[in-house]
Structure prediction request, 534 residues.
Amino acid sequence: MQKFTLGYRQFLQAKVYNEIKQVVYENIVKLAVCANNVTDIDALTRIRNEYFGNRNLSTLPGEYRAKLYIIECIIAKLENRNIDAVGKLNEAIAVCPTEDTVTVVLMIMTDPSFHQALLKDLLNSIQTLVTTSETNSFVSFVPSPSPISFSTENLLTMNPNLRLVRKYERAILKRLNADPLQSAFSYIDMCQAVHDPTCIASNWTLACLYFYDLLSKTNSILGKEAEVYAYRNVINELVCQTFILSRTYLPPHTQVYIFRLLLPVLLQTTEIFRSSIARSLSKTSSRRTIQEMVLPERESQIINQILDFTIHLTKVSPLIKLPTSLTFDILYREAVGQRFLVRFLEAMIEQDIEQAHLYEYYLFEGVWQGWARDHDFNKTRRSCMSALLDTKDWDIFDVQLLLDIPLIPRTSDGWLYRDCRSLVFSSGQRFARVDGIAFDKNTGQVQFHFQPTRSSGYGHENALFNTVDVTEVFKRGLTHAIFTLNQPVLLMRILFLFLLAQASLLLITTNSLHTSRQLQHLLTTDKKQFLYFK
Prediction:
């Protein structure tokens, strides 16, 4: 039986090997379609070794190298190394930024099971990073201070700004590589000469890495507590500023790259500073005191937000693994990543119906910020608004009706206030409460019945009825609360002399008042509002 099983396995492996062998030199899409359906790691490894193992990849065409990265991605995926698989896809796009390569990467990344496995691996890596104890250092999670050379997979067309960045970084590598302090200062100084937010964020991040290198070396020297404190402060400040800049101006895939570099640096900096304080303070100092001293409130919030946004942005930009690169190379990585990001968002809008609004929003953000240039602004804006309103069972017409109410106060530019304001009446009169809201079902007219206030010092902040109540009335759908005088039916709820046929959630706890001659039914709610129908 074992021989039969082994023979059958070898037969399948040979069959898979021959199928992939036939498409190795074909279009990259055909190779990816064939390899993506393969579950035999040995067959893929054999193809990789025979066709790519003994060749100088730097001399090969970009598409051929991209095929190698696709095969290695499938191997890593089958071995449950999902983050490494994503890194191979990033390399494939970098060496061959064509539409076919983007199509191949999109085909692999839109697989829901692979996307979920990637998120799981990311959560596990973050949990391991955060829960590492003080005795087990974070050093293995901190990237190298800086790459030592430019990437060979940079196909940017040079212009004066790019030429400036490249020459500046080349000077840092040649003259200042042995002096991390001057290298960090040089990257900060370069921010004065460039105006691209990605370039500035990358410069600050590389400066953080150089300062961290100095911090880790200084910490082992006795009597250097002041320098440790200074390096720790400058790293924290750079991390905070880089985080704010990235969240405001950078596309999602570049944000993830920056955040995955900043998080371990910030955590390890805190650990080093804590150990420095522990050596200088007396042994009677409590652990809690040291914890409060080394991690201020702002840095604590930044860590939490970096964790949250890293996980959140992975849903919309799954190519999360990029090598630590120079600023000039990151500009290229951002450019080639934008093409995939736009197509990924478009595909997920059609595929993931439950979270389509999330991808619609980020696609609109791309149009607004300029990295999704091929989409019409107004069309994308309306599509995004419709998707967001659908999550609340609203549509644009509902919002328009709400905004057309003249009683709602607005700014001089027509925007709604953030805080709660009293309704704007032409008479300027104040009201203590509302007795009811009358809906005319035939004409759609709405009437408010107010109780005037007797106190001249009545303030709008204490008003019982305001824009929040109006929004709640329309949001809860009170027009669907219908009361009749039909004879009660056993299957329906009986409420005194009339039948409750339908009711919104707002009317669940209402109390019935006396039935008047005109058959007007007054209902009181938890906000002391009354509703009656014509």
